[in-house]
Protein: Nucleoside hydrolase
Amino acid sequence: KVPLVIDTDTAQDDCIALLVGLLDPRADLRAITMVAGNVGFDQQIRNAFLTLNVAGRLGEVPVHLGCRRPLVRPWESAENVHGDGVGGMTMDMTNCEPDPEHAVDTLIRLAAESPGELTIVCIGPLTNIATATIKDPTFVDNVKALYVMGGSNNARGNITAAAEFNFYVDPEAAKAVFAAGFNITLIPWAPLTLEHAVFGPDQLAEIEALNTPLSRFFTRVCAATLDFDRSVGINGTTHPDSLTAAVLLHPELVTCTGDYHVDVETQGELTRGYSAMSWGVHGLVSNATVVEEVDANAFYDYLGRTLAGRQGQR
Ligand code: BDR
Ligand code: CA
Structure:
């Protein structure tokens, strides 16, 4: 099993990534850590517990609350994209208490408990991870790997022309994390997600037809973003976060990678959060493996099996 933590700004595809971590028999999900990002922080907490509940794992995996704003900048949300992030679902929150340990301390503790074994799936802004490196100088060496969703390797953004949301919201944290010396696998927004992790109308209809509690959850959660996606020319739902969790657990999904030096723009008037990915530039050595292509059909099949409840026994 793969020991992991998912660091998340829980809304829409973050919920699906959590399902992957909670239900895949290969995953040993030790904690969910929360970071400011997509929607209001308290809503993100509710969304995480809703996901634990539908996965049947409430009370089994702790939810730890982390940084409530980026390192330097005011928090900016993506509520125009995600709404509340779960299509208006609610539940009784009795017995849904977050763990009192701060997420940054959780990340540091879990990494130190088994040095070189823990992987962190980072699917929100990188504020918690950057803060952990500041608080504990041994954190970088104790972590086996980061699987980071963020950036683009063709400068196509989704919150500005140049920037992807996670890196845009906390560019200082993203820059610090790529400079820190982690073993990083990067799952970018474009072109990877747009070309290999969009589920079109036929696929969404297939998932809906599964008619399991998990598939109904998926359909409800993803419906919130469909209208937005269509308004920006994407004919389907986008799954960068669940892809990130999936490629960690199933590396055979990955069909092409490249080693790049990744840095993040923090200053630009039009380019804040832009991920500069260099290859063959003198003096810039690789600090990340960037996933460039995946087997899109295999990823869709994998998620379909998960939502059908056919992932085997944990
Ligand atoms: C990222 O931002 C959120 O909308 C998604 O969850 C993903 O982590 C994509 O830019
Ligand atoms: Ca996210």
